[in-house]
Amino acid sequence: MAMDVNDARRYLINLTGIVQGVGFRPFVFRIAQQHGLKGWVENQGSRVLIDIEGKGEDIREFTHKLQNGYPQNARIAEFKICEQPFWGYSDFLIKTSCLEANTANFLPQDVAVCESCMKEFNTPGDKRFQYPFISCTDCGPRYSIISSLPYDRKSITMSAFEMCPQCASEYSSPSDRRYHAQTNCCPHCGPELKLLDANGNTVNSTNPAKMASQLIYQGKILAVKGIGGYHLCCNAESSAIQRLRKLKNRPHKPLAIMARNIEAVKRICKVSEKEEEILTGIRKPILLLYKRIPEYLPQVIAPNQKKLGVMLPYAPLHSLIFAADVDYLIMTSGNISGSPICYKECDALSSLKNVADYFLTHNREITVPVDDAVVKVVDMQEVLVRCGRGYAPLTLPIETNHEILAVGAQQKCSVCITREGFAAASQYIGDLNEYKTFRVFEQQINHFKDLFGYCPEVFAHDLNLDYLSSRYAKNQIGQKIAVQHHHAHMVGCMAENKLTNDVIGVIYDGTGLGTDSAIWGAEFFVGSLSRFTRAGHLQYVKLQGGDSAVKEPWRCAASYLLALGIEPHEFLPKIDPIAIDAVKAAISNNIKCFESSSMGRFFDCVAALCGFFTNITYDAQAAIELENLSYTDVDNFYTYCISETENGLILEYDDILKDILTDIQNGALKQLISAKFHNTVVEATAECICKIRKKTGLNDVVLSGGVFENTYLLERLILKLRNLNFNVYYNRLLPTNDGGISFGQAVAASAIIKENNHVSCCSCKSYQNQ
Questions:
Q1: CA distances (Å), 652 to each of 519, 539, 655, 688, in order?
Q2: 82, 87, 111, 598: which is deepest, by most CB within 10 A?
Q3: Residues 6 or more apart from 536 whose CB is under 8 A from it?
Q4: Cα(286)–Cα(275) distance, integer angstroms
Q5: H helices of 218-261, where?
Q6: CA terminus-to-terminus distance, the chain
Q7: Cα dihedral sign for 623, 626, 628, 634?
Q8: Residue-level pLDDT at 758
Q9: If DSSP codes are grouped into helix, strand and coil, which group holds residue 451?
Q10: DSSP letter at 764?
Q11: What per-residue confidence (pLDDT) applies to 17?
Q12: Rounded distance, CA 143 to CA 161, Å?
């Protein structure tokens, strides 16, 4: 029966968020059909526009389902609806996508293969049985294969594959679950696997994946092309691990594990309900889990660690490379340590030919390299450690309409763009000291510019102009805003927790240039999104050695001991006395010395006193191993002193170190010393915060900075502060390390612009926007 036009209504609905590449238009089509509504839906830029006509009651039910029953991978950030004059549509259509410039910064993220696809994958006789590129509207690669917006077949690298008639029929059938699935394909029309030897020659095989699994079982190392790049893969129960470590130049840094299934994970690690939810969810990141003792897998996988990084197969291909008798694979980034992950076949063959025995690769191109994300559970919350596949790009609301490009720090670099009330933070890029990584940094910026038609007017960068990211920003045309490193940490944490009023910020970090030209890193701030006052810090120490002080923790210990007037030789017995004397002479003559309040270096000092005498081979290795030493059932702590000066609180290290040295001389176990040291930092930090609350009346505390990757420290400090009736906030959505810096820079810059303010500190220096 025809609808009475007098009862009809017409509305235009504008949806912003992650609404493309997630089956949103088919979802809209189906609920429109259910309610007999007419009109159309289309992708515009990175949003979805719906023109809907029908009875008012039907439209109300439609909009309710629209906002409450959308696909699981979608996220609606803005919902706008306005009534329009009745038009008289005859049906409901999915219209061809429309190009539109200047939209919000939303991109679909890569999604792990769904249960429905895996059911087909494991069903003999199904046309996609054991097909490694099976996907649908609910799963598959998205961000890693997109080259332009809107998200359509022609905008992704799957455009190289023309759908066969059967796939095309699925794609165009509203009742099919692959209706408008842009990655739809099958063995007849989709990507193909191939197996290459180390020289790039094709290995003849009718089943490359099966042959690859056999090679892995035999102890070979394979480079396997996945969603966002290559993995280096071997049997996690074989001697190939040591060979992989040597060839990859990664002697100690933990390697990630891929387990066959959740049961296999539970055999090697303790898994809570929350952790199982993350492991088996739609993103399937690397999750840091406590190992079961005794360890089942070789200790060489994660030496001197209590935790293991574990993930489950997230691409259909992964399920094919587990041989029958293999439940655990090493799956580490396909690169030489320090270099960016390989994602192009030619680069992989060039860079990894001396590491991998074989290459299992395919002809679906990757547009953007995306490493696996790393997460952990802290305080019963999922916490992002490294932003990567499934999480990147991360879009968060921000109060600005300015187009700001924040370029991050030097290590663990990421970039962030802002526009129209949203910020989009990129995946982890890496250490810009490596030339290839710097090239990826530039490519990522250009990719964002191309995708969004983005032309930044403001460049936010670190105060340290020696950072390559800062130099990049300084060379661009536009306004420049320098943001102090630890203020960026604080602000990023504030913004993700939606804090806009003044807070107490505790930033424990490794290295960041302070406004007094010293190297900061244990800071107590009072401030807002745009400004801060330095209310306290760890007592300065003169460290010797520049970058070598970071790479050789014993140098930190020697510097601290000399500052106390103590000869280091007794406490650093395995260090060459000549080297120690050289440090002593350099400090006396102020050669390559710098003042530092870094908590990271203080941890390095204690780690060296507890026996870490070698050079580190990965970032923060000494401090990480110190944390892993700690007994967890110790409540004692060392004596500490907090002095109140005209420049704020000074957390002194003298008493702490003297107590530690006494314990060492008395033969105390280093596990006990480590626990007492951690507890001391918790107690002293809480007391400093209480003193600041007494002066300011502030009750909101933000904890950020790389040192708070230390779970022992973070969890105990959270508990301590909550017991003291503080509101405690920490990073969950973005990394607390420098991977979250770019977002903080963007937020600080937008606040500075809004308030026409400058970053200031208690030294009364004002820092002009540069």
A1: 16, 5, 7, 11
A2: 598
A3: 523, 524, 642, 648, 649, 650, 651, 688, 691, 692
A4: 11
A5: 240-248
A6: 68
A7: negative
A8: 53
A9: helix
A10: -
A11: 87
A12: 18
Q: Which residues pair with 42 in a beta bridge?
A: 49
Q: What is the pLDDT of residues 459-514, one digit of tens each?
A: 999 999 999 999 999 999 999 999 999 999 999 999 999 999 999 999 999 999 99
Amino acid at position 181, single letter: A
Mean pLDDT, each 10-residue run in order, the chain (770 residues):
69 90 89 94 85 94 94 88 93 80 74 97 97 96 92 94 97 92 97 97 96 96 97 96 96 97 98 98 97 96 97 97 93 93 96 97 97 98 98 92 95 93 95 95 95 91 97 96 98 97 97 95 97 97 91 96 96 96 96 96 98 93 97 97 96 98 98 98 98 98 98 98 98 98 97 74 36
CA gap 638, 649 in Å, rounded:
19
Q: What is the dihedral of CA 559, 565, 567, 572, to 10 degrees?
A: -40
**Backbone phi, psi, residue 166, to 5°:** -70, -45
Find how far residue 235's CA is from the centre of its chain. 26
Residues ≥6 apart with Cβ < 8 Å to 548: 555
The token pair at 615 is 């050079």
CA separation (Å) from 446 to 101, 452, 456? Answer: 16, 10, 11
* Structure-block tokens of residue 300: 């060489």
Strands (E), 33-98: 38-44, 47-55, 75-84, 92-94
Which of 442, 426, 429 has the alpha carbon at shortest distance from 394? 426
pTM of the predicted structure, to 2 decimals: 0.93
745, two tokens = 């820079």
pLDDT at position 770 is 34
Which pLDDT score is estimated for 545? 87
β-sheet with 307-311: strand ranges across: 193-197, 358-362, 222-225, 230-235, 328-333, 257-259, 307-311, 286-290, 374-378, 381-386
What is the pairing mode between strands 307-311 and 286-290?
antiparallel
Q: CA–CA distance from 186 to each of 158, 161, 163, 190, 320 (Å)?
A: 12, 10, 8, 5, 16
Would you give the DSSP letter of residue 759? E
Contact 155, 96 (CB under 8 A): no
CB 403 within 8 A of CB 455: yes
Q: CB under 8 Å to 700, separation ≥6 — which residues?
A: 499, 501, 502, 503, 504, 726, 727, 729
* Among 312, 125, 320, residue whose Cα is nearest residue 211: 320
Cα–Cα distance measured from residue 632 to residue 296, given in angstroms and rounded to the nearest whole number: 22
